[in-house]
Structures are given as structure tokens and as C-alpha cells.
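Exercise: predict the fold of this chain.
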Amino acid sequence: MQLKCHLCGAKLRQGNPGPLCSPCQEKRLEQVAAGGSLYYTVSDLTHIMGFESEESVRRLGRKRTIPGRYPGIRRHLYLKAVVDDWIRSGSRVEGKPTSPLQEEAHALCIEGDHRWLNDERFDGHAYETETVSEFRNCILSISHKRTCYFCGHVEVISIT
């Protein structure tokens, strides 16, 4: 399944950091940059990257997938210059496996095989699940969006 940018509908490449394409992220960077701070907050990055929850940004920050995390304080702050360069380059910082289960998933990820995202034993260990529900024309649609910890590959599994 080819993922598309939530704003403009452009096709997203594998490993894209978030549900927005680089040009849309760039526009959001410019909007947030008007604030004048040296740092992005979790809320700023949630907006810039198009995530639905701030917890996704916090988790990626803790895993150092999003670079530029400012250490030594209680709230998560990210150096703007580092994050801006990361988004503009379109690259990702790959997470490193910390358990045998993660090593198994990581080896498959490197080979480009993400079928393991359908295996629930990896949930919370090698991928994050986000449940999305939409109500359209009196029909409730529920899907699970699973994101690889290592490369950011996303699989969407529709339930209804």
C-alpha cells in the first residue's frame, strides 16, 4: 500500500519521517520558525511532522530517531537547526536493536521485509501501533497504523 502525504496527497517514500512529504514539512517549518526560538517543542514537531499524537514525537525522541534532542531538562526540546537539516535531507536516524526480538525485526527491516509488522509479538518492541477511527457516511472505519522503529516504514491494517 502506497502512503500519501496527509496535506497534498503526494506519494511518500519508504522511511519518510511522518505522514507529510518534505515540501509540506518545509512549509510547516517556516510557520513554526516565525516563533523565533532556538528550539522546537514536542507540540511544534507534532504539527510539523503531521503526527496525530505528541506521544509519537516523544517516543521517537527518546529513541533518538528524531535528532537534536536537548538533554538535561524535563521537557523535550529539539534544536531547530539540527531538526531542520534532518527534515530537509529526507534522511532518518536508524534506531538500534536492544533485544533479541528487536534484532530479529531489525534484520528483516534491513532486507526490506516488513511482513513482521503483522506479528503482534513485535508490538511495542519493534513497532508502534496507532489506532485510527473515522466516521464517514454513517460507517465507522477502524484501522491500525503500525510504524517500524528502525526505518519508519508504515503499514495500515483496516479492520472495518
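Check your answer against the key: The chain has a mean pLDDT of 77.
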